[in-house]
Specification:
By secondary structure, this protein is of the alpha/beta class. The chain contains 8 helices and 10 strands. A 6-stranded mixed sheet has the order 6-7-8-3-9-10, with helices on both faces. It has a 4-stranded antiparallel sheet with strand order 2-1-4-5, with helices on one face. The protein binds adenosine-5'-diphosphate and magnesium ion. The site of magnesium ion has 3 residues, from helix 1.
Length: 243
């Protein structure tokens, strides 16, 4: 589904360029999930933006379903840290923004997804009238509204309190099972990576390279946090990050 070959990305012009990503290779089969974890500033967002078609590789190649990525694609959704809601638009308008931009609204709308996420009753409210958790759910609704086959998430749950974060992680897991999208999650949070990633790529500090790949076959259940395997995998990821 997603193939990343020898990806290198520099910022700035040749001569004074800063290398952010230095030879990253991975692939992700359809419907699977992958977490990218690494220290702050290592190049995680850069990798994700390249997959989203927002940033051209300096060297290397990215393909999705066999086609080279040359720009944003309809079947790829991106969720950013603060949900990216427009404060002057209602929940309904915010959730339908991607469909509006793609010209599919009002033929298609986010109604069913808002129902699924329990947001129908607040559809006429503005973001300022919502809790943080609800705001994130509106961002998720927007991403799901186009029925993407690839979901890219850049620290989508940063700065949420622990319980809200876990509740939304549970929601992501359920949506991943039900909608079947391939998931690439960028995070600096070990618990989040281990709860949501079937495979965890641990990155070095900048420039990002792959330090280790941690397999996490036990993930997938809502009760995974209770299992010894979850704890052991977290310990393993922590060791690699620190080592
Ligand atoms: P992460 O998401 O892992 O925190 P980023 O991918 O955002 O890291 O950034 C990786 C590195 O590239 C950082 O050191 C950052 O300072 C640098 N960087 C990011 N964007 C730019 C830019 N537009 N110009 C120059 N350097 C940048
Ligand atoms: Mg980032």
């Amino acid at each position: 589904m997603i193939e990343v070959h020898s990806l290198k990305i520099d910022y700035g012009s040749p001569g004074t360029a800063v290398r952010a990503v230095d030879g990253v290779d991975f692939s992700l089969a359809r419907g699977r999930s992958l977490a990218l974890i690494g220290p702050s500033g290592c190049g995680k967002t850069t990798i994700l933006f390249a997959i989203a078609g927002l940033l051209p590789p300096t060297e290397g190649k990215i393909t999705i379903s066999g086609t080279p990525v040359t720009g944003p694609r309809r079947d790829v959704a991106l969720i950013l840290q603060n949900a990216g809601l427009l404060p002057w638009k209602t929940v309904w308008q915010n959730a339908n923004l991607s469909l509006l931009l793609s010209g599919d609204y009002p033929k298609q709308d986010a109604g069913a997804v808002l129902d699924e996420l329990g947001l129908s009753e607040v559809r006429n409210r503005y973001p300022a009238e919502l809790s943080e958790g609800m705001k994130r759910r509106v961002g998720i609704a927007r991403a799901l509204s186009t029925a993407p086959s690839v979901m890219l998430m850049d620290e989508p749950l940063a700065s949420l309190d622990t319980l809200t974060r876990e509740r939304i992680q549970d929601l992501f897991l359920t949506l991943w099972h039900e909608h079947g999208f391939s998931l690439v999650l960028v995070t600096h949070d070990i618990e989040e990576a281990v709860f949501l990633g079937q495979e965890i790529l641990v990155l070095t500090g900048r420039p990002a390279r792959i330090k280790a790949v941690v397999e996490n076959p036990g993930m997938g259940g809502l009760d995974y946090r209770e299992s010894p395997e979850y704890t052991a995998t977290m310990r393993r990821v922590r060791e690699v990050l620190e080592g």
